[in-house]
Fold this protein.
Amino acid sequence: MAVKFQQENRIFTLDTKHTSYRMKVDAYGFLLHLYYGGRVYGNMDYLLTCYDRGFSGNPWDVGNDRTYSLDALPQEYPVMGVGDFRNSALIVRNEDGSECCDLRYVGHEIKEGKYGLPGLPAVYDDAGEAQTLEITLEDRVSGLRVTLLYGVLEEADIITRSVILENRGSKHVTVGKAASACLDFVTGDFDLLSFYGRHTMERNLQRETLGHGTYAIGSRRGTSSHQYNPAVILADKNATEDAGSCYGMVFVYSGNFLCEAERDQYDQTRLLMGLQSDLFHYTLVQGEKLTIPETILCYSDQGFGLLSNRFHNCIREHLCRGKFQDAPRPVLLNSWEAAYFAFDGQKILKLARSTAALGIDMIVMDDGWFGKREDDNSGLGDWQVNEKKLGCTLRELIEKVNAEGVKFGIWIEPEMVSEDSGLYRKHPDWALRIPGREPVRGRNQLVLDFSRKDVRDSIFEQICKILDQGNIEYVKWDMNRSIVDVFSGKTMQGKVTYDYVLGVYDFLERLLQKYPDLLIEGCSGGGGRFDAGMLYYTPQIWCSDNTDALDRLRIQYGTSFFYPASAVCSHVSAVPNHQTGRSVGLHTRGVVAMAGAFGYELDPEKLTEEEKAAVGEQIKQYRKWEELIRRGRYHRLSDPFTAVYTAWMFVSEEKDRALLSVVMLEIHGNMSVSYVKLKGLDDTAVYRDTESGKRYYGADLMAAGLPMPVEQKEYPAYQIELIKE
Ligand code: GLA
């Protein structure tokens, strides 16, 4: 039993294989947090201390006991208005205008299986080994009921948290801020690792010392954003890649979020993850419920490497779904960087023919095939095939592509509308706009009000008509701007940003139900919505619009802290690179792209015969290693921001096969030799380098490293396959 409740002292114990979580309902009915971290055996309530703290108030019912203050005690779900002046997990405004909510324990239930969430993505456990704990708290005055949900995946060392708010009173309450997870630490000296970025340069690692005050990241852009990924690590000062304590929080949500880390006056730390409070005030009328999206929690006592590994397993095995969750992904060629908008049916067919010759499985026809769409200034919302441009119907084109032995995929951007489109002329009120104000444009397009079902239904119908036109096996779902004009013609204001995201999920769910064999790739100007929420619907996401191999090393490094390689779409593109102008050799580009779902983003016609042969070889290699890359344990071997080389490796579960990838980042005269230390091998096993035939003990490669060649060229890359003898 992973979840237990001790009636005599009202303590909850949650245990996974290597971690423990403890909380307690105290004498006043407050739910106090006791502990989260490595496996322990006691109740951990001895950690609670109470002292008379000046200017930290005392709840009414503790009487004269000035030592009891919610401002100092660790809590499980801290609220505004009861004397805790730190950041709140929940802020509600009552009908009378007061901002207060006093949550006390009402009851709990322990259930077999992992809870699901209505309309929202959530970790699942098909094996039925997980358990759910539901703790109910209530504010007596307003009747607001708060159900804290805990999912415990014992084997995976994962605990999930979500919250359901329900107005059981007679007056309305407005939720102004709501987190799904709070971790209070009574002691500790922490750093916060977050992943910031921008379009074409996502998820750069930043490690900051947590001082007194609040360190916050989040998004107000309507999507999880390129700028801050909704996932963080709280690490002991001395934690490294391979050692030390660290805690991870991954928000399973694709919209506005807020993550706050605070060190308080008593040197205690609070970490909160939840919905963004800006642009959000969700009014619950009598009987209405609101679900706060899930946060996945994980702890590692062996540094970031183990933490990442646990998140990878959880996301790959308990969050991604469908036919492609655990299936080889097609090697594809995307038409975007090959042709941009300048293609017709003949061009697509030509690309298909040349991809077939190279051994590529699929061609994806990117933006420009529909409505009036010769550039990115018009046409969004008109999901009718531009047959004039294609020179045939979509069905005919797909049939011709398929006849070449190539699968067909297509790009869509359902959430958007161009002002220059039939849809906008007919339904200008379907776009998010604030009455009386001109909207803010982004990429010269507006955002459709996906909080509205009627709007979604109409687009859904259009998209289905497209998908029904032929054998479309892949969809790239894009979203190419941030949301500004948060105002809906129908949805109650304050709910729009949240209902919008649920609308996107609803659309995706319906699409998957209707087309269960479809592989959907997520995308938002590359990695602007690279989050665990999307991965519930789209098992892979275009990692970045930046296809430069060297930049990708950094982007993929940051991405790897939480998300498995199976989720990372990575393509070889042409040189000089379209985003940076840099030229990196084809082999190196291939090595970098093989750290994920592999493909190409170039015109094969423009390759020399020699390059074509090399591409053919790359694809063969990729197929050989595909399963190892998709399912193997991923190890970061260096930090691309500081090291002379970037190295990573995949090791099979049985440790009988490994693939080491190394890219040299610097070149100097008379270079010193780089020794790359491997990880995750069997100490006493002998591994054979399949190319050189050289044999090594696992321990030797891990302790002393493998010397990399010194070559007089820029950015050489090496892939070394090791097989256990
Ligand atoms: C976004 C995507 C690109 C491409 C274009 C098409 O930027 O990230 O890959 O699909 O849109 O307009």
User: Anything to note?
Assistant: The first strand starts at residue 3 and ends at 6. Residues 609-631 form the longest helix (23 residues). The domain at 332-631 is CATH 3.20.20.70 (TIM Barrel). The pocket of alpha-D-galactopyranose is lined by residues 336, 366-367, 376, 411, 478, 480, 523, 525-526, 542, 545 (CB under 6 Å).
